[in-house]
Automatic annotation (TrEMBL):
Pfam families: PfkB
Keywords, sorted A to Z: ATP-binding, Kinase, Nucleotide-binding, Transferase
Coiled-coil zones: none
Organism: Rhodococcoides kyotonense
Domain called Carbohydrate kinase PfkB: residue spans: 4-304
Protein name: Fructokinase
UniProt similarity note: Belongs to the carbohydrate kinase PfkB family.
Length: 312
């Protein structure tokens, strides 16, 4: 059974020792999710359009090294998207993007999904930049209609929305986000995402998302841990105490670890997610919290391998 992760791969330009130098690190939310799943041991494939430039070659190499199937990856001569990263004193990251005419936003529809693909993951800039955003939205709808398990992380990047190079306003994105919800089984957000999505004339809340058809909303709370909201309850687990180097890729590791857990437990349908017990969710969230703690303990998006993050 294969998990198909859909979305962009890019290069983060990360400050070196708080100085003027920048170090290129491979990233992008969906790329990080695919790497996390592969390293943790589940069968995973990556759907994107990746540049044929040197960064694109490094992206493919890293996917291969993590055990990710790249047969779904499309290639193009367009450049790789770049993300300029700044780090706050607490290790939290802010981003600005260089994405005009880049490869990942020009992804083409992959066609029919094979039966072996039972779970699909979507997220970040791939949901924002056209024409790729519409390609992924259509694939999300088709996958859900076909009974595949779907998980989405909007991973809000305000700097990429309502900017001079953006394709959509903030409220326009919130409207688009609402249109996806009936086709989403698991929605993963950070507290900051939840706050941003609740703003403006088109703002919505966790209760609205559940009412729209989402089976479970997973919320990351930084060092305070993780929560999942369902129609009947909220279930929370504490964070894992660790010295934080930076938070790059932490939420993506949570996303990947949750999908890896569900895959191992054969929870691969909407009904199976709805039937998860409180104890199931506590185990899943605790595993994701432990995996994310390893990621934040080292620089850049560097998810753990299975040997570093035992399940129980």
């Amino acid at each position: 059974m294969t998990i198909l992760v859909c979305g962009e791969a890019l290069v983060d330009l990360v400050p070196v020792h708080e100085g003027p130098l920048l170090s290129p690190k491979l990233g992008g939310g969906p790329f990080n999710v695919a790497v996390a799943i592969g390293r943790l041991g589940s069968k995973v494939a990556f759907l994107s359009r990746v540049s044929s430039d040197p960064f694109g070659e490094q992206i493919l190499g890293s996917l291969h090294d993590a055990g990710v199937d790249t047969s779904w990856v499309q290639r193009g001569d367009e450049p790789t998207t770049l993300a300029m990263t700044t780090l706050a004193s607490d290790g939290s990251a802010q981003y600005s993007f260089y994405a005009d005419g880049t490869a990942d936003r020009l992804v083409q529809d992959p066609g029919d999904l094979p039966d072996d693909v039972h779970t699909l993951s979507f997220g970040t800039l791939s949901l924002l930049y056209e024409p790729g955003a519409s390609v992924y939205a259509n694939l999300l709808k088709r996958a859900h209609a076909a009974g595949k398990l779907t998980m989405l992380d909007p991973n809000i990047r305000p700097a990429a929305i309502d900017s001079t190079s953006g394709d959509i306003t903030a409220d326009g994105f919130r409207t688009r986000f609402r249109s996806w919800l009936p086709d989403v089984d698991i929605l993963k957000v950070s507290e900051d995402d939840s706050y941003w999505l609740g703003l403006g004339e088109e703002g919505t809340t966790v209760d609205d998302w559940l009412a729209a058809g989402v089976s479970a909303v997973v919320m990351t709370r930084g060092g305070d841990g993780l929560s999942v909201f369902r129609a009947s309850e909220e279930i929370s687990v504490p964070g894992v105490s660790v010295d934080v180097v930076d938070t790059i890729g932490a939420g993506d590791t949570v996303h990947g670890a949750l999908l890896q857990f569900l895959n191992e437990e054969t929870i691969v349908t909407s009904s199976a997610v709805r039937d998860m017990s409180k104890e199931d969710w506590e185990r899943a969230l605790s595993f994701a919290a432990r995996a994310a703690a390893i990621t934040v303990s080292r620089p850049g998006a560097d998810p753990p391998w299975a040997s570093e993050a035992p399940r129980d």
